[in-house]
Amino acid sequence: MIDGMCFFADTDPSWIVAELEEGFDDFTEYKSDGGHDPATDPSASAYVHFANGVRAFFNSVKVEMPGSQYELVCDKGQLEVSDREVNLIRGDSHFQWSRANLPLGEYMQTHQLSCVSELIHILENGGGLVSPGEEARKTLEIMLGMLRSHKLGNHRVDFPLT
């Protein structure tokens, strides 16, 4: 989800404010079991401000409902993106909104299969990745910024981290 935020923001993060779930006050560095037991990882909420003015709200919570979803709010509309569908919402006026389900496209596959398909396509045909590996640094920096902000009592943390 954080990779998606960075992809759509299309720039570097500037600063962050974050909070981890209760019971993880001493969670200042990653020390879980690689995702095998979700109870060992804290959920987190964060506000990320990007260099171009894009603002992102990240909220991961542990709930029974499977799947994931995020919203992108733009000047002329909003996208609701989940692991099942994409909806475009446009504010035609303050009183009327239109809603359309968008075609899922070639990257909408179960779990990580779209990444594998993309890699195979690039290896066979050349070209660049939708999100190159260098972009993962932004995601890591945001995650580390979440931990630091929480440790500092949910205070603003500026990027790059020092």
What descriptive keywords fit this protein?
162 residues, alpha+beta, 4-stranded antiparallel beta sheet, 28% strand
Q: Averaged pLDDT, please?
A: 86
Cα(first) to Cα(last) distance is 24 Å
Proportion of beta-strand residues: 25-35%
**SSE pattern, N- to C-terminal:** HEEEEEEEHHE
Main sheet: strands, sense, barrel: 4 strands, antiparallel
Helix content: 10-25%
Strands, count: 8
Gyration radius, to the nearest Å?
18 Å
Given as residue ranges, the uncertain stretches (5+ residues, pLDDT < 50) are none
Side by side, the strands of the main sheet go 3-2-1-8
Structure description:
The protein is an alpha+beta fold and 162 residues long. It is built from three helices and eight strands, in the order H-E-E-E-E-E-E-E-H-H-E. It has helices at 2-9, 113-125, 136-151; strands at residues 13-20, 44-50, 55-59, 69-74, 77-82, 86-91, 97-102, 157-158. The protein has a four-stranded antiparallel beta sheet, covered by helices on one side. A hairpin with a 2-residue loop joins strand 4 (69-74) and strand 5. The protein is globular, with a radius of gyration of 18 Å. The protein starts with a helix and ends with a strand.
Task: Provide a compact summary of the structure.
The protein has 162 residues and is an alpha+beta fold. The protein has helices at residues 2-9, 113-125, 136-151, and strands at 13-20, 44-50, 55-59, 69-74, 77-82, 86-91, 97-102, 157-158.
SSE inventory with pairings:
Layout: H1 2-9, E1 13-20, E2 44-50, E3 55-59, E4 69-74, E5 77-82, E6 86-91, E7 97-102, H2 113-125, H3 136-151, E8 157-158
Antiparallel strand pairs: 1-2, 1-8, 2-3, 4-5, 5-6, 6-7
